[in-house]
Amino acid sequence: MSDKEPLFSAKNRKLLTNPLGSDNPITIQVLGICSALAVTAKLEPAVVMTISVMAVLALANVIVSLLRNTIPSRIRIIVQLVIVAALVILVDQILKAYAYDVSKQLSVFVGLIITNCIIMGRLEAFALGNRPWPAFLDGIGNAAGYGIILVIVAFFRELLGSGTLYGFNVIPQAFYDMGYQNNGLMILPPMALVTVGIIIWVQRSRNKALIES
Amino acid sequence: MNTQSNTYTFLYAAIMVVIVAAVLSFTSLTLKGRQNMNKEIEKKQDILKAVNVASTPDNAVELYDKYIVEAIIVNSEGEVKSNDKAETFKVDLKNENKKDLSERNLPVFIFNDTKVGKKLIIPVRGKGMWGPVWGFISMEPDRKTIFGATFDHQGETPGLGAEISKAEFQKPFTGKQIFDESGVFTSLKLVKGTASNNPHAFDAVSGGTVTSKGLEAMLQDNLSSYEKFLKSSK
After folding, report:
1. Is A168 helix (H, G, I), strand (E, B) or coil?
2. Would you say B154 and B130 are in contact if contact means Cβ atoms under 8 Å apart?
3. Residue B57 to residue A156: CA distance in whole angstroms
4. Chain A residues with beta carbon closer than 8 angstroms to that of B34
5. Looking at residue A167, what DSSP letter applies?
6. CB 3.0-4.6 Å disulfide test: which of A42, A100, B2, B100 passes with B159?
7. Structural domain contains residue B121
8. How many structural domains comprise chain B?
9. How much is the pLDDT for A140?
10. Hey, are the CB atoms on A100 and B38 less than 8 Å from each other?
11. Does residue B5 fall inside a structural domain?
12. More confidently predicted of B14 and A105
């Protein structure tokens, strides 16, 4: 890679945009499914989770990329894990002191961020072999690709399951008076999996190149 | 340098662990004070929320001092052990609930406001699905009718168990009775969908069965230790 390569060269832009579509971490690589099921009952936690994963993934990618030539390959997974865990605790501690409300919302996600396979996957597959700037973009891009699916799933689950969007009622009372009911099944984790499945199906039928032979 | 050798690997791991530990402990120590202050403010806000007084982190301390006129510690026999406001605030239910009933320090916060009148606020703490759940129950001066309730949790699932911290879940507690018609302590029972016209029951959270059951057990365990206090000095 030459030093004169522009910050947002075509190649670097791809790092940001590919994970949103044809290389999406959830629908194509099928990583990070566990947290996608856990936090998508409502839009709000899905958004909070996206932002936290983005912060941690981008930072961890940059740190691992800076250290990539020094990390002994036999303990690289442990090194990555320590970096991610330390970052998550650091972020949590700072939020607890300076943004207590946000930290309360994050409570359950902190553990989930550490176990998110996307983070380990990107550190291992990308940050270990690339420079900090592309690694940073890759982190942002993959977190965004993860987030977009989370938000889509949460949108349908909250709308159909609770009749609200971001906590606000969107289904008029008249519908309920006519006999409409919220589908309680949508709130339960299995429907998250079904929703993710439908997204994967829609995506693959629109883009045949993604179908494995 | 050979980054594959054993010596290098061991040194690398050792140095990394020391650096990370130092950074984390430094952060923890420097932020401890602020974090504890935030927790105290939150507790004050929760106590006020149980009597429907809305507060912000900025004015919580002031409102708490204004409305909570007295705070006492009672024992399971209903006798007052202490009436030191600061000491009562510091009682940690996590430790108290481990003790034998007769040795427990049971805090009661007394709220007074010229418009709403006098209310008693009782803290409760129990187990949810993933971690502790806690809350504050405020009682009318008749000591059997619930005036308001607020619950919070450490890590219940968002959208499921975590719904206990929402106003929609907490509001229906107003007006519930923890003693039956003949004056026997009943606490509140968990039911499915039919609690709105039953003063001795509350509705479960859909998808949050374990959390709801934990809440039921929490009310039973904590409120029952106040039974004699609530029955005495009418």
Report:
1. strand
2. yes
3. 34
4. 97-98
5. T
6. A42
7. yes
8. 1
9. 94
10. yes
11. no
12. B14
